């Protein structure tokens, strides 16, 4: 495949996917558990079980979607193996998100009905999310080939994606209010509209060239291996295993932190939902400021994205741990700003690091199975919703959190909330760093050797 210069507009369009991924998953993370526990008053154990069922479904649908959508058809031969799935998946994911919160009255009346409603719609939403996000991730290693292009695209995407995190956190509370469950459906509709608009903005960035389509068809013709054999073979690669474990613990930590903010504002600070805005805004500012800082650091630690991920993980661990001592809105905002400094760095290096590791697997296997690899990666990251649910349930159960109170919680319950916004995420970040530090063996020299070998293999 010949290397061509990619325009800034194409890179920015690709970055729309980062915005959508963080916007949709972020809004899900901060709203769903809180909505069903504190607004629908569904027992936390029910909510946790629903999340575990969702994760089991996720274990099947993520890798399988990557495998199935990698096959060619008349539509994919014309428009690409990934582009049609990306566009349709974004639209369907946005629409099913509304269903999670638009709960009919007759469903609310019975806990079992409410539980089943939650299970059905979170699973539908996740299936369509996987449909587009798995294919979106698979486009990156093929569309952006050089280290310079991957880094530049990652920086642009990170800058755009950070706004997705901010919008996913800041926007929803502007349209819902604590104690008014119906307002959450209105918020979900606003989110769905933004998601559908994003499906148009992303098209240029994920459009596949004829070379990409031909390479994909060639790779598929060479691949007669079954799906589950591909899955087992992929996780045998140490570098890929290290990445999976790191992303799981990283995402678990992030989900706990962002999902805790509603609980902090309501249960610890006793404030209205709009008080979440300054806290999330501070995180956004920290992440944006950090991009320039980490860009300078990257020039000193050249072509070692894996090492940079470790450094940023330890930085996030220190910042999140310090939040345990926060007791005011200003203190939480400052703490989230500092955490955002590390978060922005991790985001900057995550995509190019992942691309380097995918290259390593491709060189070893002599074939491209990016769909399977991205499906497995998506599963491990989405599994973090189960981590969040279990952590919240245990903390609330142990400290006596009262879901019937829409406001300030008892002192012990406030400690439980602080645990799942600070110390638990800090532990997750440390484990994430250790996984990459101790298991991964990829070096900058091997990264460059892999790129040369991919050129030789035509992959």
Report the major sheet: none
Secondary-structure element pattern, one letter each? HHHHHHHHHHHHHHHHHHH
The CATH homologous superfamily:
MFS general substrate transporter like domains
- The CATH C-level class name: Mainly Alpha
Radius of gyration: 21 Å
How do the helices and strands line up, and which of them pair or pack?
Elements: H1 8-39, H2 44-68, H3 74-79, H4 83-101, H5 105-108, H6 111-143, H7 147-170, H8 182-201, H9 203-206, H10 210-222, H11 227-235, H12 238-268, H13 276-300, H14 305-322, H15 329-365, H16 370-382, H17 384-399, H18 411-439, H19 444-457
Condensed summary:
The protein has helices at residues 8-39, 44-68, 74-79, 83-101, 105-108, 111-143, 147-170, 182-201, 203-206, 210-222, 227-235, 238-268, 276-300, 305-322, 329-365, 370-382, 384-399, 411-439, 444-457. It is mostly helical. Helix 17 (384-399) packs antiparallel against helix 18 (411-439).
Your description of this structure?
The protein is 81% helix and 0% strand. The chain is mainly alpha-helical. The chain has a single domain, classed as Growth Hormone, Chain: A. Helix 1 (8-39) crosses helix 12 (238-268), helix 12 runs parallel beside helix 16 and helix 12 (238-268) runs parallel beside helix 17. The protein starts with 7 loop residues before the first helix and ends with a helix.
Essential attributes:
Growth Hormone, Chain: A; 19 helices; 0% strand; 459 residues; 81% helix; mainly alpha
């Amino acid at each position: 495949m010949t290397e061509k210069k990619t325009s800034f507009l194409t890179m920015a369009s690709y970055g729309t996917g980062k915005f959508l991924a963080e916007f949709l998953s972020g809004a899900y993370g901060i709203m769903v558990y809180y909505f069903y526990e504190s607004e629908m008053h569904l027992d936390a154990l029910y909510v946790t079980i629903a999340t575990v069922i969702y994760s089991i479904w996720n274990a099947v649908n993520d890798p399988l979607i990557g495998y199935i959508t990698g096959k060619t058809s008349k539509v994919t031969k014309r428009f690409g193996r990934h582009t049609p799935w990306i566009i349709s998946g974004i639209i369907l994911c946005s629409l099913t998100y509304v269903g999670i919160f638009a709960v009919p009255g007759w469903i609310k009346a019975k806990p079992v009905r409410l539980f089943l409603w939650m299970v059905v719609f979170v699973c539908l939403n996740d299936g369509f999310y996987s449909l587009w996000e798995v294919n979106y991730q698979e486009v990156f290693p093929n569309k952006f080939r050089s280290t310079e292009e991957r880094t530049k695209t990652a920086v642009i995407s990170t800058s755009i994606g950070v706004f997705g995190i901010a919008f996913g956190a800041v926007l929803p509370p502007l349209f819902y209010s604590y104690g008014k469950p119906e307002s959450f459906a209105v918020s979900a509709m606003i989110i769905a509209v933004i998601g559908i608009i994003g499906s148009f903005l992303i098209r240029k960035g994920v459009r596949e060239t004829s070379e990409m389509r031909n390479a994909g068809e060639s790779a598929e013709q060479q691949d007669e291996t079954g799906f589950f054999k591909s899955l087992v073979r992929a996780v045998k690669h140490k570098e890929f295993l290290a990445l999976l474990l790191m992303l799981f613990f990283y995402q678990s930590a992030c989900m706990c932190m962002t999902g805790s903010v509603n609980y902090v504002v309501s249960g610890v600070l006793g404030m209205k939902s709009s008080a979440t805005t300054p806290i999330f805004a501070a995180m956004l500012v920290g992440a944006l400021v950090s991009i320039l800082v980490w860009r300078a650091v990257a020039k000193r630690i050249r072509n070692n994205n894996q090492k940079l991920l470790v450094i940023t993980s330890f930085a996030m661990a220190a910042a999140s741990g310090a939040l345990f001592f926060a007791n005011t809105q200003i203190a939480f905002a400052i703490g989230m700003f500092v955490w955002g400094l590390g978060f922005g760095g991790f985001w900057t290096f995550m995509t190019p690091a992942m691309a380097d590791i995918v290259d390593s697997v491709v060189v070893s296997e002599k074939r491209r199975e990016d769909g399977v690899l991205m499906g497995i990666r998506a599963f491990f990251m989405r599994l973090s919703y189960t981590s969040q649910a279990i952590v919240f349930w245990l903390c609330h159960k142990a400290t006596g959190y009262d879901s019937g109170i829409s406001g300030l919680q008892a002192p012990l319950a406030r400690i439980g909330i602080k645990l799942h916004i600070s110390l638990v995420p800090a532990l997750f970040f440390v484990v994430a760093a250790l996984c990459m530090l101790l298991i991964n063996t990829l070096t900058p020299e091997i990264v460059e050797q892999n790129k040369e070998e991919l050129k030789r293999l035509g992959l």
